[in-house]
Amino acid sequence: MKCGVPQFDDRPSSASSAARSPRWRLLRKRLIRIALPAAGVLLALGFAGSALGATPSVGLGSAASFSVLAGSTVTNTGPTTMFGDLGLSPGSSVTGAPHVLGATHVDDAVSVGAKSDLTTAYIDAASRPSSGSAGTDLSGQMFTPGVRSASSSLLLSSGSVTLNAEGNPNAVFIFQIGSTLTTGSNTSVSLINGAQACNVFWQVGSSATFGTGTSFVGTVMAAETITAGTAATFHGRLLASTAAVNLDTNTITTSNCASSVTGEGGGLEITTPIEEQTIVSVGTTKPGLPVKVAPLPPIGSQTTLTRKQRAAKRRAAARRRRFAKEHPHILARPPIPTWHGGLTG
């Protein structure tokens, strides 16, 4: 008691009385207002952190337009076709007349620039931190996105090796090979679950040799020679830094990522259901980071309305029922007219 005014202790005496306290309810509302935006920020940072953790692609620069790029010479036997450009620098000898659907650049400014960009790409791929071993023989193995390394030689002795993008069309596969890459006859590289040849890179420490009938995928960047066996096909590029590229009745389709997936060369075209789309950063829907997005519930469903909105909806429905009861003649459906006789023109 102070100055004749009774003093009350408004502190709650128990958990239940605390929950009923007006002051506590106000504090709880303020905490919710603070916590929800903070949770959104943390979620966005988590998405961004995952995106930064994904393996970025290897930039080829001006070398990207070349199906074949060599250092010393390019030799060919039989009807070889390459869908991209043919380049050579500093050598000047191209023999066997391969069929080049793109442009041919022999020891000119374009080929010199492409070789410089190839060197940059090679160093980039070789310097990536490894996320696991590629083993010594690729046969029968399946790899998910990331960087795989082989300290010495790497072999694909028989059958196939599978690259699984796990639903992410931007997934990148990099293979770091200490010395040689060799494939047996009629072996292959298989792409599944959205994997694209444009995102597969083979960094070879010395030379690459592909057996007869091999079906290979990805950009091969060899420090020395690349030799393609008879009728071997490539969805990618054969890029040799210092030595020769030797061809024999091969088909080389330069791999470019589809514009509907990457947005390059045109507008972004989303071709997957909303629940399979991915998020790169906050506020965008350009594919990049594989994040499952739950489909939105139907508009007007109870899960999309707040408590106040639901109450307002109930009141509006009650008003409509009351109005219909008081004014039945206004809402009565007019009779359908009946026509008698025929219609004349």
Question: Care to describe what's here?
Answer:
By secondary structure, the protein is α/β, with parallel strands linked by helices. Helix content is 25%, strand content 25%. The chain is built from 6 helices and 22 strands. It is elongated and about 95 Å long. Residues 1-6, 8-12, 41-52, 259-303 and 333-345 have low confidence and may be disordered.
Quick description:
The chain has helices at 15-20, 22-53, 109-127, 259-262, 307-326, 328-331; strands at 66-70, 73-77, 81-82, 85-88, 93-94, 99-100, 104-106, 132-133, 142-143, 146-150, 154-156, 160-164, 173-177, 181-183, 188-192, 200-204, 208-210, 215-222, 226-228, 233-240, 245-248, 251-253.
List the helices and strands and how they pair.
Blueprint: H1 15-20, H2 22-53, E1 66-70, E2 73-77, E3 81-82, E4 85-88, E5 93-94, E6 99-100, E7 104-106, H3 109-127, E8 132-133, E9 142-143, E10 146-150, E11 154-156, E12 160-164, E13 173-177, E14 181-183, E15 188-192, E16 200-204, E17 208-210, E18 215-222, E19 226-228, E20 233-240, E21 245-248, E22 251-253, H4 259-262, H5 307-326, H6 328-331
